[in-house]
Amino acid sequence: MKTPTSYKVPIFYREAPPFNAPPAVSDTVQKLWNFVWRPKLVKREHNVLEAKLPLIFQLTFIHLVLQTLLFVVLALVYDEIGYEYLGTSLARAYDTDLPFAPLLLSVVIIAPLTEEIIFRLPLIYTRSFVLVAIFALLMSYGPYIAQAFHASWFHYAAVASALALLSLWLLTSNKLQTKVYLFWKRHFGLVFYTSAALFALLHLLNYKELDLPLAMLLLLALPKLLGGIFLGYTRLRLGLGWAIGFHIFNNLVALLLLYGYLTEA
């Protein structure tokens, strides 16, 4: 008679995974600095309570500190040349003729969702991510860009058609997709900063009616460039949903500052 050498024991509980201490602020600053100096794909965090929540709070705090310092510097520069920076950067950034509820929906919900899809979704390369980003750009901001450059609808349709054909080529050509992927991987720093710069420059459409020298106008894009860097890093390390939430918080703070400023004025 054969005696079984092993038995299956029912498992009534599973041992909890070992606790990992949340990242220190100094460690977060160091990793962020290394990434800014040399952008590359970073390891995605997966533990929400032990990693993601502490990281998003730390990144938000660091971002607010840097944005405040940048705000002070820009305010001093604009004061030297005779402009009011707060009124210029906030009051002209949003359509204040809208009631608060539609403005809140547009600025705090729709804009962050759309802009993260366009500028941060394809930071992790897949063919579908790039195509979705191109489509969202054409549908959301194409008409505004055409209007800013005084382009006719014919020119807009021509550019949109060319991008659509390029997207179709990317969708059907494995050879082209391989080349794009290799370029993305080898020159990720260029891709990352191009995305952040385009994100910042797109917001200059909010100030197209201002009569400012080009250098002064570009200064208004610096806070958005800084925000684009933080949002890109958040997208890579925490995920797109966390970048959208970060963006929503930033826009909400800016909108509340705008209404506070207008109320005091």
The secondary-structure class comes to: mainly alpha
What percent of residues adopt helix (DSSP H or I)?
over 70%
What's the count of strands?
0
Number of alpha- plus pi-helical segments: 12
- N-C termini distance: 95 Å
Radius of gyration using CA atoms only: 23 Å
Could you list the spans in which at least 5 consecutive residues all have pLDDT below 50? none
**Spatial shape:** globular
Number of domains: 1
Average pLDDT, to the nearest integer?
83
Provide the succession of SSEs.
Answer: HHHHHHHHHHHH
Specify the biggest β-sheet.
Answer: none
Share of β-strand residues: under 5%
Attribute tags:
single chain; 265 residues; mainly alpha; 12 helices
Plain-language structure description:
The chain has one domain (48-264). It is 71% helix and 0% strand. The chain is built from twelve helices and no strands. Helix 3 (85-91) crosses helix 12 (240-264) and helix 9 (188-202) crosses helix 11. The longest helix has 33 residues, at 48-80. It is globular. The mean pLDDT is 83.
Secondary-structure map:
Elements (H helix, E strand, L loop, with lengths): L24 H13 L10 H33 L4 H7 L8 H20 L7 H14 L1 H7 L4 H20 L1 H13 L1 H15 L11 H6 L2 H16 L2 H25 L1
Brief summary of the model shown:
71% of the residues lie in helices and 0% in strands. It has 265 residues and is mainly α.
